[in-house]
Amino acid sequence: MAKKSPKKKINYDVGLYEHKSINNLILLGIYFTQMENEKCTFEKVVGKCFSYFPKMFSFSQYRNWPDSRKLDRPLRELREKRLITGDPKTFFSLTRSGEKLAQEIVKGFGQKKLIL
């Protein structure tokens, strides 16, 4: 995978992501972390997902705090579907099919609306 840093985010338009599956949003969190050439630890993926998609990854009563429990089952599902490898104790990475799907999701979002 050719790595390049994503550019600065310009907005958190909820309309872009509120009807997307949480699994797809997590794939994007991992994808963006890998694009920055960082190890995608559990903490990193929680942070990325919350940063890009705060409505989906926050506590319902504390919207300014990420809820890491929302990633537990979806991460297992993504691993079972062979879209990611890794675990919370080490780090996560996309498989080839996971990377391909993440790129399709970005295109579907209209990449310029997510990142500059």
Summarize the structure.
With 116 residues, this protein is mainly α. The protein contains 6 helices and 2 strands.
What can you see in these coordinates?
There is one protein chain. Strands 1-2 form a two-stranded antiparallel sheet. By secondary structure, the protein is mostly helical. It has one domain (14-109): Arc Repressor Mutant, subunit A (Orthogonal Bundle), CATH 1.10.10.10. It has helices at residues 14-17, 22-35, 42-52, 69-80, 96-109, 111-114; strands spanning 84-86, 92-94.
CATH topology: Arc Repressor Mutant, subunit A
In total, the number of strands is 2
Form type: globular
Order of helices and strands: HHHHEEHH
**Total helical segments:** 6
What fraction strand?
5-15%
Find the structural class using helix and strand composition: mainly alpha
Mean pLDDT: 84
Largest sheet: 2 strands, antiparallel
Helix content: 40-55%
Give the CATH level 1 class.
Mainly Alpha
pLDDT under 50 segments (min length 5)? none
CATH architecture: Orthogonal Bundle
Quote the distance from N terminus to C terminus.
20 Å
The named CATH superfamily: Winged helix-like DNA-binding domain superfamily/Winged helix DNA-binding domain
Strand order of the largest sheet: 1-2
Keywords, separated by commas or semicolons:
mainly alpha, single chain, Arc Repressor Mutant, subunit A, 5% strand, two-stranded antiparallel ribbon, 116 residues, 6 helices
